[in-house]
Specification:
Elements lengths: L39 H13 L5 H9 L33 H10 L6 H15 L4 H13 L3 E2 L3 H4 L2 H5 L3 H8 L2 E2 L11 H17 L4 H20 L7 H27 L3 H10 L13 H25 L2 H12 L5 E3 L5 E8 L3 H10 L6 E9 L11 H8 L7 E7 L11 E3 L2 E4 L4 E3 L4 E3 L8 H4 L28 H13 L3 H4 L1
Helix pairs in contact: 1-2, 5-10, 9-11, 10-11, 12-13
GO biological process, one term: regulatory ncRNA-mediated gene silencing
Organism: Penicillium cinerascens
Protein name: Argonaute complex, subunit Arb1
Amino acid sequence: METPTRGNTTISGDLPIRSAKPKSDTSKMPPHLDVQDATNEQIREATRMAMMNPRLNFSDALAAAIGAKKRTKKKRPKSKRGNDKPTGFEEYYADGPITPKEHAEMLEVYNPDLRFIVRIEEALKRFQNRRRIEPGRLNMFLKYLQYGGVNIGGNSVDEANKQDVKSMTKDQIMQARAQAGIQKQRDTLEVNFDLVLRGFLSSYFIRYFNPENEAVIKLATETIKNFYTYLLQRDVCPEYTENLLDARKTCDMAAKELWMNVQLVRKGPGPFNKSCSTLFGGAYFQSSSPPTGTERRKDIKEKQENARNVIKYAVAGATSYEQASSFLELVTQNQLWAKKIHDIDGFEVLAVIDPDIRVVEFYHEYAPEQTPVGTIKAVSFRDPSEPDIDMSPEERWEWDNGKAPEYEFEFLVDIDLLPLFYQGLKVISGVWQLNCGLYYFDEVMSTYPTFHTVIANGLMMKWKWPRDLTGDDDKKPDEGAGNAIQWTVDAASKVTDQQKGEQSDQDEN
C-alpha cells in the first residue's frame, strides 16, 4: 500500500500587498500636522488631490484638505493660572509701582479731610479687590474685621448674573465684591488698631479657630499684617501711623508666642507636675482606696509607683537641701499632703531657669530613664475676663485698694517642656502647695501671651439690634444703622441679655 505523500503548498516569490490607506511621508509632515488628526474622508480627498497634481506631495494635500494649519495652543503663564496665581500674601510679594493717575486717585479717596470711616471703608474695598483672598484666609480676616466693629455682609457679585457684571465699571465691581462696611454711628468710637489686634489674637482667635498647627497661626498674623502694610503704604490714615507700626510688631510676637501656647496646652503639665497631681490631688489624682477590678487596681498601682519615682528624683536632684530634707522627713512620717491655693486663676511666668550641669549629671547617674527638671519662677494671676470673686464688701474694698493677696511660686518643670515657657506667659491652671514648701500646677486649661488684652468687642459680635414688637416707630434705629451700636455702659447690659436668647446673623456667615 502506497504511503500518501504531502504536497508542497509553499508559495514562493513576493506578492504585492495593497495598503488600506495611502502611505504618507511622515518625515516631510509639518510638525504642526498629524495624519491621525485627519478623518478618512479628508485622507481620501488628499489622495485624490495628490494623484491629480504630481507636483503636490501628500502632506501639503492633506493640509489643504483639512483647510488650515493646526494652531498650537499656547500655555498660559503660571502668573495667570488658578492656584498658581499670586495671592498678594507671599513672603516677598510687593505691589508694583503705581501710575500718576492712580496716585492722584489715592490722594482723592484717602484725603485726610475725609472722615476716618470713609477712608478705611474705601481701603477695605480696594484691599479685597487687590488681593486674591482664599476662603480659609478670608474667613479669618472677616472675623477679625467683625471683632473690630466692621459689619460683614454677603457678596453681591455672586447674586448678580454675568451680564450685570460685564456692564459694571471698575468701582462698581469693587463695591459689589466688598463684604465689609462701617456704620456711621460708629464714627465716635475710639480707633486703636493695636488694642483690637491684641484682644482678637490673645482671646478670641484661639478659642474660635482652635489652630491645630503653626501654619494656621501664621496665616492669621500674616494676613492682618499685610493689611496694615497696605494701609501704611497708601497713607490711608496718617494720624494712626504709630499705632499701625505697633500693631505690626504685635503680629510678629503673636506668630511666635501663640504656637508655643498651643503646644503647652497639649503637652502640659509635664511628668513631674502630673505625678504630683496623681499622688496629692488634682485633675490626675488617683485615690489610694481599693478600686473594683483586678486590672483597674493594677493599673492605678503602676501609675502611683511611677509618680513616686518621678517626684523622688526631682526633689533629690533639683531642690535645696532644706526642701529635700523636709520632704524626706514628711514622707517617712506619712504626713506629706497638699492644699490648693484658691482665689487665683493661674500664674504668670517671671523667669525660666534651665537645669545646671549638677542636676543633669545627677539624673544621668541615678535615673537615666527619667527627664531632668528645670525651674520656673512665677506670680499668681487672676484672669480679668472671668467674673469677680464672691466676697464681702470689706474684702472687696481691700482688694480694690491693692490689698489682694499675692503669691510667688517656684515650679519644677521637665526640661522637654521648658522651651514652651517664656517671661510674661499666663497659664490658667490650678496651683497646689505641698506642706514641705514645694509648689506644683495642675492640668493646663488655657494660656495667654504677653500681650493679653481683654476688651468688650467679643461680646458685641453676637449682638444685634432688637426687633420692635410694640409698633412704636420712634424706637426703631436710624435708617442704615443695621446691627451697629456704640459700646457704652448702658449698652453693656443689653448685650449680655441679648446673648442669652439670640444669635447674630453675621456670626452665622
